[in-house]
Amino acid sequence: MAVSRRDLIKAGLAVGTALSMPSVLRAQTAHPARTVRMVKNSSLTTFDPVVGASDITIDHALAIYDTLLGIDSNAMPQPQMVEKWGVSDDKKTYTFALRDGLGWHDGTTVTAADCVASIRRWGQVDSGGQLIMERAKDISKIDDKTFTISLKEPLPLLIDILASVSGLMLFVMREKDADIPATEQVTANIGSGPFKFNEALAKPGASFTYDRNDKYVPRREPADWFAGGKIVKIDRVVWDNIADKQTSLAALQAGEIDYLEYPPVDFLSTIEGDPNLVLEVLNKAGSDGILRMNCLQKPFNNVKARQAMLHLIDQEAVLRVQSPDPKYTSIVTSIFGNTTPYSNDENTGWFKKGGDPEKARQLFQESGYAGETVVILQPTDVPAISDVSQWLAAALRKIGVKAELAPSDWGGLSARRQKKNPVEEGGWSIFITGDTEFALGDPMSEVCLNASGDKAWYGWPKNDEYEALRAKWPDVATLEERKALARQMQRVWWDFVGDVRLGQKINPVARRKTLTGLIGVPVGIQPMWNIQKT
Predict the structure, then answer these.
(1) Which of 52, 375, 422, 430 has the fewest CB atoms within 10 Å, counting from its CB?
(2) What span, in angstroms and rounded, lies between the C-alpha atoms of 317 and 337?
(3) What is the pLDDT of residues 413-440, one digit of tens each?
(4) CA-CA distance, 412 to 390, in Å (whole number)?
């Protein structure tokens, strides 16, 4: 196979980076055979999966907590902590019984009271959980292993919502942790899951360590997405925080790490040519980039300014910034993504190849834009989003908008995006995120498809007409009726512009061939059970 000059330059850069790596990193080469070292997409700063929705936080929660239910590869809910459940004849009362062998990392036993408290806390912030809480008459324990959810009216999707991975997953915490307000972080990091968080070895900003929970009792069924047995086949997993992507690639090539979640796109051919490495697509549907605007503050409290962003975005340009290989990217114009059953073309006349900057300029003027600073949160430790943030700032400046980047790590972004203040008081205007195509097919749980104002996700879009349509979703009986409802929801969404889509992208992970057993799931998170080193 011919090797291009571009590939030689890439290979030379990777080798040069390996030779210049800090000695502390090189010293980690001789880690034990039953320890897996991973470099994740961003640093872990928020540990509470109710307070933080970032993939890295959910990955942490998957390791140390367990869930009542888990969806399998047919997208069907299966029991996990629950042994069995039943529903009354009037479809208003669900009774759940816990399986044997559930214990907290502190040595105490998991009880139904823990589950009730966890549901109530999660139900304050998750879109699907909020629906359950609205229809719930009571959620209470019967005894230490049994609890019930009693409803005012039937909710056919209740089991699906409890098992959903589209919004904030329902992780079960100790009752005393779940009693902490949903606005405050749980800091104990004590769960009942297959891994224990090693507090003694935690080095914020450098690495976090997870040890196999010897007392965890997995289910007997084979592992299947988030269902089945969570069997841990290694002793320890270490997340190394290596912000520089070239350095992390060099560490992968040298065998100092086993897994790189987001390999640098410019080096994919280098990875493919390395006999010790594998590129693997675990989420085959990929994710959609999403631009969230602060709908509470100027200029995006005006619908014309939000509509301007629809016309400003050149999706192909945005995708090229993130990935030079078009086989990993696609244009997306549906709020439900390209691959879900509800994807449609309703009210997409705004889309224009290459964008329409002049239309965007006109709409900003019509909005009454008066030179307010638009602050774009820029996560410098997530290169793909950081680069798009810079592209966006330049595009806004070209049409006369005063755009300013606010660089920080992802942890800083996660903290700042919670603020509803004006930018002069530490607030923000725009941040870029994304979610999986799979999640975008579930408007009950998907945080980015909620337009309930203060109850919505960061950006807080509000539209009563859209929310009235979304409220019908749980009670619609057939797929065809849901497809029709999805078209109505999309028509309204693109009028008030709850957010803006930036294109669809598939991200392969890079791993050493000695690391096997990774469970491919349709969301941007990665279970650590089932993996092994050969």
Answers:
(1) 422
(2) 19
(3) 999 999 999 999 999 999 999 988 988 9
(4) 17
